[in-house]
Structure formats: structure tokens, C-alpha cells
Amino acid sequence: MSPVTFNRRIPANIDLVCGDPLLELQANAINTPSNTQVPGTNTWVAIIDWVRDLLAAIEHVYDVIFLDCNPSFSIYTQIGLAAADRIVLPGADPCRSELPHF
């Protein structure tokens, strides 16, 4: 999907693939085979390769691809982290009053 179709302020060279609202339910479907022991197969690597294969198929189209992952350590976040070349982690502002001071 090209977001510029909906908002002209977004540059035309930005594409967006939206997440599925049922992703949390799909996590169970992905988690089960990733933990299954199949002789001669590393099922965890096979699951991760789904995203790596997708990224390999489209990497020539883009200079940079961002995978926005859920802050939980769910299976789909683990897959995104494992498929990424680099990771950007947001930090908390220690000056904000609602955060404990260390």
C-alpha cells in the first residue's frame, strides 16, 4: 500500500505493509510448529526464514526496510528481530516523572 494515496504529506517513495489485526491469534499457530521437533529439520530456523525469504525477494526494490515490532517478546517479534540486519531500540527518558529514577 502506498500511504501517499491517503495522505499527500507522506513521500511517494514510502510503502507500507499493515499488520494483521489477528496477529496475536496467529502467534499461536506459528509458535506451535517452531517448537516442534522434526528430525533433520530446525523448525525455528524454518519459521524465521519465512520473513527472511520475503525480505530477500523485495530488498532490490528498497534502500531500507523497517520492521516495526511489538514491544513484547512474542514469536512474531522474535522473527522480526532474527530477520533484521540492524535493530533500533527506543529508549526511555529518565527525566520523566512517571519513570523510576535509577
Give the SSE order as H and E letters: HHH
DSSP summary, beta strand count? 0
Residue stretches low in confidence (pLDDT < 50, at least 5 long) are none
Give helix % range. Answer: 25-40%
Distance between the amino and carboxyl termini = 43 Å
**What number is the mean pLDDT?**
79
Query: How many helix segments?
Result: 3
What percent strand?
under 5%
Shape: globular
What structural class do helix, strand and pairing data support?
A: mainly alpha
Overall radius of gyration:
17 Å
Largest sheet: none
Description of the molecule:
This protein has 102 residues and is mainly α. It has a domain at 18-83. The protein contains 3 helices and no strands. The protein has helices spanning 23-34, 43-58, 75-83. Helix 2 packs across helix 3. The N and C termini lie far apart (43 Å). The mean pLDDT is 79.
Notable features of this structure?
mainly alpha, 102 residues
